[in-house]
Amino acid sequence: MTIEDFLRLLLRNALLLVLLTVLGAAAGYGFSYTKAPVYQASALGFVRGAAGSDPVNSTQGQYSKAQFFLPLFQTRAVGQTIVDELGLEASPDAVAGSLGTTLDPNAPIITVTARASSPEEASAIANASIEAVAAEAEKLEPGTGSQLVPYQTALTPGAPVSPDRIRYAAVGAAAGLLAAMALAVLRNRNDSRLRTVDQLADEVNVPVLGVLPDVKDFSRPKSGILPEPKTFQAREALRKFRTNLRFVDVDNPPRSIVVTSSAPAEGKSVVSGNLSRVIAGTGQPTLLIDADLRRPLVAKQFGLDGSVGLSQLLAGAVSVEDVVQPIPGTRLSVLPAGQIPPNPSELLGSRRMHELIKELSRTHFVVIDAPPVLAVTDAQLLSRHADGAVLVAVTGRTRVEGLRRAIDSIHNVSGKVFGVVLNRASTSRLKRIAYGDAEYGYSAYGYGSKRYAYGSAAGLETGPEAELEVPDDVISAPVPETLAADEDPATEHGHRARGGKRAAAPDEDGRK
Q1: What CA–CA distance (Å, rounded) separates 480 from 505?
Q2: What's the CA gap between 410 and 371, in Å, rounded?
Q3: Which Gene3D superfamilies does the record match to this protein (predicted)?
């Protein structure tokens, strides 16, 4: 992990870092109240020289005597004298150990500092210690003439010197920050969710056909009716998705696609509905088939009656004309799922379903809304009937490994995956920076970018030519001639030979 990656990791987990740091500081500050307060008081003692001595020699003698007095403050005898005088409950060693001394370098003055659990006791010990040392020195060297006398008595302290609550809070904040950083690294290491376009292209190794922003236009309201995209962001994202889909195979554009996802609740029904609308908006007759015979949503999204539809059609109970419902004022028609059957997989994998898609794709661009790949086998079966499949992935939700398994599942039945559309992509620039994806957005990807279908999937040249905008009606290219009805569905349209290679493009001399 580089420094840049680490900084992005911290940015992604900024809330966690702030939260744990604040909690750590609060915990440290609160913990300081469990510690007994300690008060500190200081008194001054003056070392007086012997009377009648030479001033120069007297000063030197005072400093020499002060050096003699200093160790006496920490003796048990002095501690015992203080305990007896003040009537303390503490031991003589504890009292003597609470004393600290310093000698003034410019004058024979000793500063005595005492610590105790109460302010009165601290000042009393400091004052008593000077007299106790003077008495002990007189016992050791009586009649020397030099004496330690009180110079300045200790005042009663107003506030404790310990615990240092700010210090405890700082230590707690540092501990919380370190814990948050460790948790962020652990989460990042174990997080397999899809985050960026680059991650999708690099780790899943499929073309990114589109990036749909997380905007209100792409959200299904409580009523269930899918709103018409109004904003420029939403419409532009759909147009780019449509154009990319047109370029997945330049010579043989797809006429039928399956829209699915690896797991439920990733927005594949909303994507299929909006894709159908934008294709129909170019004037291309478009048919949206609800092939999710387990949890159908398409009819409700368009406010249609979905009681009769695909399931009855495959069972031979109705005709196509009976179940296809056109959307007024558009070139879009909808084939609802109909009644939920007991055997969805058998119906969707039947020869009748293959023939139905083949027949409808002659006059319409067919979009098939299919169940999630990893939940049931329906999408796999449908991918064999259609020209290919598009998988919907959601940033922050779709698991990379699950997406790989879904793609492999389609490939295992000789199906074709055109690519992935990234749904609910954040429009926040801060989030894009945090995940190291500066171009993470519907307005950033363009022709010639290696991570999109133009160059990587279609084998197109990248460069200035690729920057030209493709007209909106490009998806309305003439429908290619279909093969005879008795041809093997595995080789329909010629260019879709399952498991085989595409025909080589002619070179400059026209040779293949």
Answers
A1: 18
A2: 13
A3: P-loop containing nucleotide triphosphate hydrolases
Specify the domain boundaries for CATH 3.40.50.300 within the chain. Answer: 197-477
Q: How confident is the model over 279-310, as pLDDT tens digits?
A: 999 999 999 999 999 999 999 999 999 999 99
Secondary structure class of 415 (helix, strand, coil): coil
Which residue reads 């569905």 in tokens? 489
* 336 within 8 A of 323, measured Cβ to Cβ: yes
Distant-in-sequence, close-in-space partners of 346: CB < 8 Å, separation ≥ 6: none
Was domain 39-152 assigned CATH 3.30.910? Answer: no
Query: Which residues lie below 8 Å from residue 107, measured CB to CB, with a gap of 6+?
Result: none
Q: How many angstroms separate the CA atoms of 431 and 266, rounded? A: 20
Q: How far apart are CA 312 and CA 302, in angstroms?
A: 20
- Backbone dihedral angles phi then psi of residue 112, each to the nearest 5 degrees: -110, 125
Residue type present at position 258: V
Burial 214-229 (b: 16+ CB within 10 A, else e): ebebbebeeeeebbeb
- What CA–CA distance (Å, rounded) separates 189 from 318? 54
Give the start-end residues of each E strand in 187-247.
208-213
Rounded Cα distance, 338 and 319, in Å: 13
**What is the distance, to the nearest Å, from the Cα of residue 106 to the centroid of all Cα atoms in its chain?**
63
Give pLDDT tens digits for 189-239: 877 777 777 777 778 888 889 888 877 766 666 667 888 877 888 889 899
- Residue 5 — φ and ψ, nearest 5°? -65, -40
Where are the domain boundaries for CATH 3.30.70 in the chain?
A: 39-152
Residue pair 386/258 in contact by the 8 Å Cβ criterion: yes
Q: Are 435 and 11 in contact (CB under 8 A)?
A: no
* Fold (CATH) for 197-477: Rossmann fold (3.40.50)
CA–CA separation, 134 and 381 (whole Å): 102
How far is residue 493's CA from residue 357's CA, in Å, rounded to a whole number? 13
The verdict on pTM exceeding 0.85 is no
- The DSSP bridge partners found for residue 388 are 257
110 within 8 A of 148, measured Cβ to Cβ = yes
**How would DSSP label each residue in 108-164?**
SEEEEEEEESSHHHHHHHHHHHHHHHHHHHHHHSTT-S-EEEEEEPPPPPSS--BS-
Sheet bearing 286-290, strands edge to edge: 208-213, 417-425, 388-394, 256-261, 365-369, 286-290, 332-335, 325-326
